[in-house]
């Protein structure tokens, strides 16, 4: 794919309304939708624009997308336009077996559920509602009964990194096709959640890489772009070829891109009121779909252009030989430095050029 023209994945925050109170919530979601939320008609039009962009995957997120009464209609329309559709319902009483069956009947390709701790009490505390863990485990069974491919999302932070082995053991028992591991970006309520030290990323990467060799599901890392660098280094050392991907995963589920996806580079995010961002974790709006087309904003916005040019990166990222396949988390760089082109502080890697420059200045 040419990411200058088309994103691999589009995330639409269908609503900010949600009955959970997650400690890390980027959107700082609340029970009621924001004024000015995109209407059902505008939602269908947005999906048309996503399809016209030749995007591969459309994820209907939130908030809680089940707060939208037109969710199944949006999924059905996306499938009619040739998109692979995913959604991420919140673990609340709105999520029932009947709802899961309806999502499957509408053509949903993959449903994601969130699990952040291996024990119910800790997970519920993180998500802000008692019973959230039990609801997820219940919904896992519903998804299997409906033959709906299942994804688990996990946010890794300093709060749960010591529970990683427990989480791995848990997700291996759930019959999933996809585990998406998010590394905390300090935005929204996530500002109050401690992140990992740079060295801890490498430790988690090593555990995920080893796991990926033995499990029947895909492991995708989000906002830990240097995992691609880590994997490439390990594969080279072990004599393995880098596996290619075509957007499809186990059992025909949603897969991962054959190219490096980053904010504004293969990835675009639309808020519940139509504002367009490079990603949901990089809160720099490039416009609104009520005034400009999604294609124009993705392809022509200056911020988007800059994010797709690895040679514009600064610091260690700018001189790193892996800057094209990695590029660092632009969202984390912005959150921690105020500059979306700055080096990613969560990476320990010292490139050959950076080591040479550092030695010459000593």
Overview of the structural elements:
The longest helix is centred in the middle third of the chain and has 15 residues, at 198-212. Strands 1, 2, 3, 4, 5, 6, 7, 8, 9, 10 and 11 form an eleven-stranded mixed sheet that branches. The protein has 13 helices and eleven strands. It is an alpha/beta fold and 362 residues long. The model has no long low-confidence stretch (mean pLDDT 94). The chain has helices spanning 40-52, 71-80, 97-106, 120-127, 132-145, 164-172, 198-212, 226-238, 294-300, 302-307, 315-319, 330-337, 352-361; strands at 9-13, 57-61, 84-87, 110-114, 150-156, 178-183, 218-222, 262-263, 266-270, 275-277, 287-288.
Which tags fit this structure?
eleven-stranded mixed beta sheet; single chain; about 350 residues; about 35% helix; 13 helices; alpha/beta; about 15% strand; globular
Describe the secondary-structure layout.
Layout: E1 9-13, H1 40-52, E2 57-61, H2 71-80, E3 84-87, H3 97-106, E4 110-114, H4 120-127, H5 132-145, E5 150-156, H6 164-172, E6 178-183, H7 198-212, E7 218-222, H8 226-238, E8 262-263, E9 266-270, E10 275-277, E11 287-288, H9 294-300, H10 302-307, H11 315-319, H12 330-337, H13 352-361
Parallel strand pairs: 1-2, 1-9, 2-3, 3-4, 4-5, 5-6, 6-7, 8-9
Antiparallel strand pairs: 9-10, 10-11
């Amino acid at each position: 794919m040419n990411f200058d023209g088309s994103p691999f994945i589009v995330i639409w925050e269908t609503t900010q309304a949600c009955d959970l109170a997650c400690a890390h919530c980027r959107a700082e979601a609340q029970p009621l939708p924001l004024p000015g939320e995109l209407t059902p008609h505008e939602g269908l039009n947005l999906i048309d624009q996503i399809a016209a962009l030749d995007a591969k995957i459309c994820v209907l997120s939130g908030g809680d997308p089940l707060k939208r009464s037109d969710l199944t209609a949006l999924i059905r329309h996306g499938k009619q336009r040739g998109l692979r559709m995913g959604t991420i319902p919140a673990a609340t009483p709105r999520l029932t077996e009947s709802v899961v069956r309806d999502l499957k009947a509408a053509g949903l390709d993959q449903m994601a559920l969130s699990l952040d701790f291996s024990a119910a009490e800790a997970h519920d505390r993180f998500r802000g509602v008692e019973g959230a863990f039990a609801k997820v485990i219940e919904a896992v069974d519903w998804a299997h009964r409906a033959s709906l491919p299942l994804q688990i999302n996990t946010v890794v932070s300093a709060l749960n990194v010591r529970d990683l082995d427990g989480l791995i053991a848990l997700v291996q028992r759930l019959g999933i096709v996809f585990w998406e591991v998010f590394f905390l970006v300090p935005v929204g309520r996530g500002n109050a959640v401690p992140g990992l030290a740079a060295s801890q990323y490498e430790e988690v990467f090593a555990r995920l890489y080893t796991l990926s060799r033995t499990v029947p599901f895909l492991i995708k890392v989000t906002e830990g772009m240097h995992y691609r660098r880590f994997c490439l280094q390990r594969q080279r050392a072990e004599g393995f070829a880098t596996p290619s991907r075509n957007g499809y995963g186990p059992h025909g589920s949603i897969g991962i891109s054959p190219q490096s996806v980053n904010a504004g580079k293969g990835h675009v995010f639309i808020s519940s009121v139509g504002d367009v961002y490079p990603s949901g974790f990089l809160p720099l709006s490039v416009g609104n779909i009520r005034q400009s087309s999604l294609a124009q904003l993705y392809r022509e916005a200056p911020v988007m252009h800059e994010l797709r040019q690895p040679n514009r990166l600064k610091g260690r990222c700018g001189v790193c030989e892996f800057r094209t396949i990695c590029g660092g988390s632009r969202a984390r760089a912005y959150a921690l430095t105020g500059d979306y082109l700055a080096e990613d502080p969560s990476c320990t890697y010292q490139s050959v050029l950076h080591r040479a420059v550092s030695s010459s200045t000593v």
